[in-house]
């Protein structure tokens, strides 16, 4: 097998603002895995706040050494080799894991969701993320987002209540809110969440800094809405420590190490009584199509990343009646656009 990795810059349709900063691009790494005339595609997006770089990911991927005749159907062996080579770098493993699974499905000739026996009827509706913005801009964006059943609102700014109210001025659709570690006072947070519970809000993501474990546990014990860990939850070991600190976890392929790790996390989280959100970065339809294969395992989905970028080099999973659904093609069901 021959692995090709290349850095890529994703241009966003509009500035994307969170409590931790704003950006107009997202760096990424695209991967191709060539074997027997087939190509498995993989990707990892690398928002800067996570601290990972395309050069670091590409260097880690260059250390993977498979034999030319390596069997793509032996996923355990191929993933073990990749994990040993890249070391403690989940995004590098995520990119190659997605490519391996895509190639695996193409060799067999079936989509991953079919091979795993998942029922597409269990796929939850996905949300559309609205970044931190002015109330006027949020009213406009919420009014235009008619294809989505759920909206996700980034908070953690100077007047979060005004932003929620602005969206509520134009729609009564369910909301989720994500503070991205931007809240500071736990008593004020609890009071605000009490108000959010009256605004048809489904859950709250990462209210405080990931390091504030005791404050999250205090809030989780008292909150009328589920508290979901995101920045604090990367790998399976984080999930095992989550009960009592969070009501649920946000699982993303890029931060946990790919499809194999995400499937284990989703299954373990459910066994531990945690709610699950399957999320994404701002990424192409390659990574989104991969995540969609696992979405029947999740309680909620936030798989809008490709909708936020300006020039998607892939096509794949599509929004249908508010849900991201996979294509019935082998593997992850994503293909490079012919113009690329």
Automatic annotation (TrEMBL):
<keyword id="KW-0413">Isomerase</keyword>
<dbReference type="Pfam" id="PF02746">
    <property type="entry name" value="MR_MLE_N"/>
</dbReference>
<dbReference type="Pfam" id="PF13378">
    <property type="entry name" value="MR_MLE_C"/>
</dbReference>
<dbReference type="InterPro" id="IPR036849">
    <property type="entry name" value="Enolase-like_C_sf"/>
</dbReference>
<feature type="domain" description="Mandelate racemase/muconate lactonizing enzyme C-terminal">
    <location>
        <begin position="135"/>
        <end position="226"/>
    </location>
</feature>
<dbReference type="InterPro" id="IPR013341">
    <property type="entry name" value="Mandelate_racemase_N_dom"/>
</dbReference>
<dbReference type="InterPro" id="IPR029017">
    <property type="entry name" value="Enolase-like_N"/>
</dbReference>
<dbReference type="InterPro" id="IPR029065">
    <property type="entry name" value="Enolase_C-like"/>
</dbReference>
<comment type="similarity">
    <text>Belongs to the mandelate racemase/muconate lactonizing enzyme family.</text>
</comment>
<dbReference type="InterPro" id="IPR013342">
    <property type="entry name" value="Mandelate_racemase_C"/>
</dbReference>
<keyword id="KW-0479">Metal-binding</keyword>
<dbReference type="InterPro" id="IPR034603">
    <property type="entry name" value="Dipeptide_epimerase"/>
</dbReference>
<dbReference type="InterPro" id="IPR034593">
    <property type="entry name" value="DgoD-like"/>
</dbReference>
<protein>
    <recommendedName>
        <fullName>Dipeptide epimerase</fullName>
        <ecNumber>5.1.1.-</ecNumber>
    </recommendedName>
</protein>
<keyword id="KW-0460">Magnesium</keyword>
């Amino acid at each position: 097998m021959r692995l090709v990795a290349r850095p890529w810059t994703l241009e966003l349709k509009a500035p994307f603002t969170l409590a931790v900063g704003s950006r107009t691009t997202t760096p990424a790494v695209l991967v191709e895995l060539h074997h027997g005339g087939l190509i498995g595609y993989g990707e990892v997006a690398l928002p800067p706040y996570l601290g990972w770089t395309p050069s670091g990911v590409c260097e880690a991927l260059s250390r993977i050494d498979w034999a030319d005749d390596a069997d793509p159907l032996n996923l355990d062996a191929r993933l073990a080799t990749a994990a040993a080579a890249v070391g403690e770098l989940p995004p590098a493993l995520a990119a190659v894991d997605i490519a391996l699974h895509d190639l695996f499905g193409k060799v067999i000739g079936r989509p991953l969701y079919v091979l795993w026996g998942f029922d597409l009827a269990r796929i939850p509706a996905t949300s559309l993320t609205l970044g931190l913005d002015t109330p006027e801009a949020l009213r406009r964006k919420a009014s235009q987002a008619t294809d989505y059943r759920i909206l996700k609102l980034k908070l953690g700014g100077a007047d979060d209540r005004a932003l929620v109210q602005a969206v509520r001025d134009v729609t009564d659709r369910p909301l989720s809110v994500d503070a991205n570690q931007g809240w500071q006072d736990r008593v004020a947070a609890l009071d605000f969440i009490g108000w959010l519970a009256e605004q048809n809000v489904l859950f709250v993501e990462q209210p405080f800094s990931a390091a504030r474990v005791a404050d999250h546990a205090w809030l989780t014990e008292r909150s009328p809405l589920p508290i979901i860990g995101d920045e604090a939850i990367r790998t399976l070991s984080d999930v095992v420590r989550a009960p009592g600190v969070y009501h649920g976890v946000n699982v993303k392929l890029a931060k946990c190490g790919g499809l194999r790790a995400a499937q284990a996390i989703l299954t373990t989280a459910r066994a531990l009584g945690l709610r699950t959100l399957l999320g994404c970065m701002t990424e192409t339809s390659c990574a989104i199509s991969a995540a969609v294969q696992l979405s029947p395992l999740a309680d909620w989905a936030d798989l809008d990343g490709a909708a936020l970028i300006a020039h998607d080099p892939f096509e794949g999973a599509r929004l249908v009646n508010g849900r991201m659904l996979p294509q019935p093609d082998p593997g992850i069901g994503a293909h490079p656009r012919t113009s690329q």
